[in-house]
Amino acid sequence: MGSVFTLPARRFRTVWISDVHLGTTGCKVDYLLDLLRATECDYLYLHLVGDGPDLPMLKRRYPGVRFAGFRFGSELSRYLAAADGFVFPSRTDTFGAVLLEAMACGVPVAAFPVTGPCDVVFNGETGILDEDLGAAVRAALSFDGRRCRAYALGHTWEAATAQFEAHLHQNTRSSNLRTAQQEAR
Q1: Of 69, 77, 84, 64, which Cα lies nearest the Cα of 13?
Q2: Which of 80, 83, 172, 173 could form a disulfide with 105 if both were Cys (CB 3.0 to 4.6 A apart)?
Q3: The domain containing residue 183 runs over which residues?
Q4: Angle value at C-alpha 44, between 132 and 98, nearest 5 degrees
Q5: Is 102 exposed, middle or buried (0-12, 13-18, 19+ CB in 10 A)?
Q6: CB 48 within 8 A of CB 120
Q7: Tell me: the pLDDT tens digits for 122-147?
Q8: How does pLDDT run across 8-41, given as a tens digit for each residue?
């Protein structure tokens, strides 16, 4: 099947996936769209994948954005894999699994330096975390998608379980040491 994007040469395809609710989530749809308009990034083309109550209004307000609606499974994967960058304008996500999904598709991330992105993006290697999201987008577009993919593929359930178990063992040893020290007094 062909690419989900058809663009003139030298244009970068950015994608963002979210529910489309203005003012009801930490994801700032309007902020991102206004940012792209204000910086006159004629080399950026945004696909917004998602659905929600504000979608009709956003389509009218931002005619230059491709609103793809709700997608899932292999179709969603194709949107991610066809992008040059993944923009994540949220300040409140708790983990950001979608960031790992984007990187697993070989797509670098541009996001704010907050909890969630800080936990899963290797800043400067698999994406850019910056308070200036426009600068983050421009910088992330130069990254090697293969490095993003390799990094994301290291985030498996097995790796998460091993990390959790290591923390448990470390805390148990620390607790046992404190108990021994208290008993020695």
Answers
A1: 84
A2: 80
A3: 155-185
A4: 65
A5: buried
A6: no
A7: 999 999 999 988 788 888 888 899 99
A8: 444 456 656 554 544 444 456 666 666 666 655 5
